[in-house]
Amino acid sequence: MEEKPVSKDIILKNLEDFQSQDLKYSDGRILGSMCTEAHPFAKEIFCNFLDSNLGDPGLFKGTKQIEDSVIKSIGGLLSADEVYGNVVTGGTEANIMAIRAARNHARKYKGIKKGEIIVPESAHFSFKKAADMMDLKIVEAKLDDNYKIDIESLKNSISDKTVAIVAIAGTTELGLVDPIDEISKIAYDNNIYFHVDAAFGGFSIPFLKEIGYDFPDFDFSLPGVCSITVDPHKMGLAPIPAGGILFRKKEYLEVMAIDSPYLTVKTQSTIVGTRLGAASAATYGIMKYFGKEGYLELIQNLMSNTIFFKEELKKIGYNIVVEPELNIVAFNHPTIGAEELSDLLDERGWKVSVASCPVAIRIILMNHIKKSHLEELLEDLKDLY
Ligand code: 0PR
Predict the structure, then answer these.
(1) Residues within a 6 A CB radius of ligand 1
(2) 8: in domain
(3) What is the pLDDT of residues 37-49, one digit of tens each?
(4) Residue 161 CA to ligand 1 centre (angstroms)
(5) What pLDDT digit, counting tens, does each position of 76-116 carry?
(6) Contact at 8 Å (CB) between 338 and 354?
(7) Distance, CA of 207 to CA of 11 (rounded, Å)
(8) Residue 73 is part of which domain span?
(9) What does the pLDDT read at residue 99?
(10) 299 and 283 within one domain
(11) pTM of the prediction?
C-alpha cells in the first residue's frame, strides 16, 4: 500500500488503464460467455444498494423484502406459489446450497453418512466443487446419443447412498434440456432429493414454452423437483453476481441452518455470511422493468439469431453437433480440429470456447452478439473453411 493518499484522478486513470485491457461485451467478440452486459437500469439500481448487507437482514428489512420478492417472482415463473430461497453469487453457490440441503436432509432423515450424488456427464463443474467440499461421491450418469442424461444409466446409478439426483435445464456446453419430467418421477418414486440446474435455462425456457416451444416440464409443477438454480446474471440481464436458489420446502433451508446468535436473525442457511443486497435490488428492478413481455422478446431475438447462425454454418459446410434447443450453437469443421479452429478464430479476435463433450466450438448467442457480429464471424468462418 502507498504511504501517502493518492489523488482520485490518478487512481481513476490507473484503473482505466487496467480496464482498457479487458474485452467489452459490446464489441461482439465474446462468444463463449453466459454472462452479458447488464442492463443500464439494473446497474443504476445496483449502485444504490451497495451498502445493504443481507447477512444481517434485521438491519436491512426493506432489502430483505426485496430478496424475498425476487425469489417469489422467479418461483412464479417456475410454477411455485410458495417457494423459499436466496439470491446468491451465482450458479456455483446455488448448486452448492442445493447439494448441502440434500446431503443434510439425507443425513437427518435417512442416516446416510457418506453419500453419493448422481449428475449427468454434462453437469457443470460446480457439482464437483460441491462434492469435494462435502465429501460426497459423484456418480456420473451417461448421456444418450442426443447428449441428454440416459435414463437407464441414471436408474442403474441409484444406490442406498444416493442423496441427490441432478438434471440440467440448459446444459453449459450445448444448452440442452434433460428429460426432467421422467427424472422427477424416478426421484419421487425412490424418495430421493432432485435438483434441477436451470442456471442458464431458467430465464428463458418458461417464456419459450409459453409460445409453443417443445420442452419437457422442468419446474415445481413436477412433484419430484426439490430445488432449482436460476441465475439472473445469465439470461436475466442482472449485474454479476446474481444467482438464484429456490427450494420447494422451508425444511431444506432449515436442515442447513447454522446458529448466528448475535445477529438480527438467529440462524443462517446461506454459505456466504455478509452478502450483498445490491444483486437482489438490481434483479428486482430489471425483472419488473422487462416483465414477461420483455424477456420473451429478448429470448425470441436470441433464438432467431441462433437459427440464422446455425443455418448459415450449415450452408458453408460446418457440421452442427446437435440441433440447438436454447441459444447455444456447437459445431465442427470437417477436418480442422476444434482447438485449432478456436486458435485460428482467436487470431482474428474471436473469443470462442471449446466444448468437451463432444469436442466442438461452442457459441453462446447472448444479447451482446448482434446479427452484424454474426455476419462478420461467418465471413471469417467461410474464409477458414
Ligand atoms: N450451472 C450451469 C448450467 C452453468 O452453465 C454454470 C456456469 C453454472 C451452473 C455456474 O454458474 P456461475 O459461474 O454463475 O457460478 N456457466 C458458465 C460456464 O461455465 C459460466 C461462464 C460465464 C463461463 C461467463 C464463462 C464466461 O465468460 O461456461
Answers:
(1) 33-35, 90-92, 95, 124, 126, 168, 172, 197, 199-200, 231, 243
(2) no
(3) 999 999 999 999 9
(4) 28
(5) 999 999 999 999 999 999 999 999 999 999 999 999 999 99
(6) yes
(7) 44
(8) 41-287
(9) 98
(10) no
(11) 0.98
